[in-house]
Specification:
The chain is an all-alpha fold and 197 residues long. The chain has helices spanning 2-16, 22-31, 39-61, 69-90, 100-125, 134-164, 170-190. α2 (22-31) runs antiparallel to α7. The chain is globular. The model has no long low-confidence stretch (mean pLDDT 90).
Length: 197
């Protein structure tokens, strides 16, 4: 049980680390257009993201995939930017069911990219064979899922307060938050080490 808690906590800290806020930014961008009544869809999206994240770690642990760190560090903010732009341009449009399969596929793909960003560190904290890393990887994934649900709950709660107390429309909330995320993520892209050649 103590070993489970160790890897579960690593998963929690991976998402909630204040110095590595890219994960939280992506979750905010993903959650912005939704409310509490959409909880099933959000839970599914978050889980799909976790599956992608975990899949990337499994592929990395078994040596099936290896991507340059600088490329991954560039792609992570790109995924956040794309998600924020998508919600910026679809804010207030009642087409949430249209292209839902596309949203799930894109979320899975983005989860893989984010997972690759953590794969090198994850491999260094685990010794032994690739198969012996599967259980800790599952425990880590549960920690990630739990932390993501905490972030999503906070975003939904903030959304509820802003829309009910301050009378923001759902569209205005999505526009403001998407624009804020774009403003935060563009410097991350500009300062990416991929430009230093």
């Amino acid at each position: 049980m103590s070993e489970f808690w160790i890897y579960f906590q690593i998963g929690l800290k991976h998402v909630l680390d204040i110095h590595a806020y890219d994960h939280v930014l992506f979750l905010i961008a993903l959650t912005v257009p939704y409310t509490f009544k959409d909880w099933k869809r959000i839970l599914l999206l978050v889980t799909v993201f976790t599956v992608g994240h975990t899949l990337a770690l499994v592929l990395s642990v078994f040596g099936i995939i290896a991507v340059k760190v600088s490329l991954v560090e560039f792609l992570i903010p790109i995924t956040i930017l794309i998600t924020a732009f998508y919600h910026l341009f679809t804010a207030g449009k009642a087409t949430k069911n249209d292209g839902l399969n596309l949203i799930f596929f894109v979320t899975l793909f983005f989860g893989i990219i984010h997972g690759l960003g953590f794969s090198n560190y994850f491999k260094t904290i685990l010794g032994g064979s690739a198969t012996s890393k599967l259980l800790p990887l599952g425990e880590f994934a549960l920690g990630i899922e739990a932390a993501q649900l905490v972030v999503v709950f906070v975003v939904l709660l903030l959304s509820y307060i802003v829309q009910t107390v301050f009378r923001f429309s759902k569209r205005d909330w999505a526009l403001v938050m998407s624009a804020f995320i774009i403003g935060v993520v563009i410097p991350m892209i500009v300062e990416s080490p991929i430009w230093n050649r």
